[in-house]
Specification:
Elements lengths: L1 H7 L4 E3 L9 E3 L6 H10 L7 E4 L3 H4 L2 H9 L6 E8 L6 E4 L4 E5 L3 E7 L9 E2 L4 E5 L4 E4 L3 E2 L11 E8 L20 E3 L2 E5 L4 H6 L5 E2 L8
Parallel strand pairs: 1-9, 8-15
Antiparallel strand pairs: 2-10, 3-4, 4-12, 5-14, 6-10, 6-12, 7-9, 7-11, 13-14
Length: about 220
């Protein structure tokens, strides 16, 4: 699959198992996530268009492995377990959180990643600075809080399914917006969710995301 993705795209596609991934995150091993993946395969669907994101799914959070992830990966911090399913194939923008995010690949997909330190003082980010990574089905990855990311990108016509684990409350509506709307505060879109959007990404722009992604909103092929 990785060889094929590189043949049909004009940007380099790396694997999350490559050395290049190490500044973005870690491969997480030693946790049995079979029941989570089975739940996703049986009880969730891929929409006909666009993506669907659910921040918290009690059925997955009540599985025994969820408590283990909270205790061991997040150091006894409260977590939420949800999912993102969809058919996205373009970069669209980036987000980041204060705290790591786990992604559990129910299907193969790609991720476009950057570093927070590459954001300019004006809150802009150049698409050319991002790297694309292939995540094989069944892989569990941790993305550091300094890693810019957004929705996965599909590697087949059917789309993708991704389990998303985050500190509890992330990606939910803000209780209060900062009074000072300059600097990083300008990017705060939801709780623990800072976003830079491509100006052409209408759903994000309608939510009030900052249009700071510079360059072509590239589409990745498969």
């Amino acid at each position: 699959m990785l060889k094929h993705l590189n043949e049909v795209n004009d940007v380099k596609i790396y694997s999350v198992f490559d050395e290049e991934f190490k500044t973005y995150g870690n491969i997480i091993t030693g946790y049995d996530v079979v029941d989570m993946i089975a739940y996703m395969e049986e009880h969730t669907i891929i929409p006909d268009n666009g993506n669907v994101y659910i921040a918290s799914v009690p059925e997955m959070e009540n599985l025994p492995i969820s408590a283990t992830l909270g205790e061991c990966v997040y150091g006894n911090m409260p977590i939420q377990i949800g999912y993102c399913n969809g058919r996205n194939s373009t970069y669209n923008g980036f987000e980041y959180h204060k705290g790591s995010e786990l992604n559990i690949a129910v299907t193969d997909f790609m991720l476009v990643l950057g570093h927070t330190w590459e954001i300019s003082p004006e809150n802009t980010y150049r698409i050319e600075d991002a790297r694309v990574f292939y995540v094989p089905k069944g892989t569990v990855i941790e993305m550091f809080q300094t890693t810019l990311h957004l929705s996965p990108l599909k590697t087949c016509d059917e789309g993708f399914k991704d389990i998303v684990v985050l500190p509890k409350g992330t990606n939910t509506p803000l209780c209060n917006k900062p009074i000072d709307s300059t600097g990083e505060n300008r990017l705060l879109l939801q709780r623990n969710k800072w976003v830079i959007s491509h100006p052409d990404r209408e759903p994000l722009m309608k939510q009030g995301a900052f249009p700071g992604l510079i360059g072509e909103n590239k589409e990745l092929r498969y």
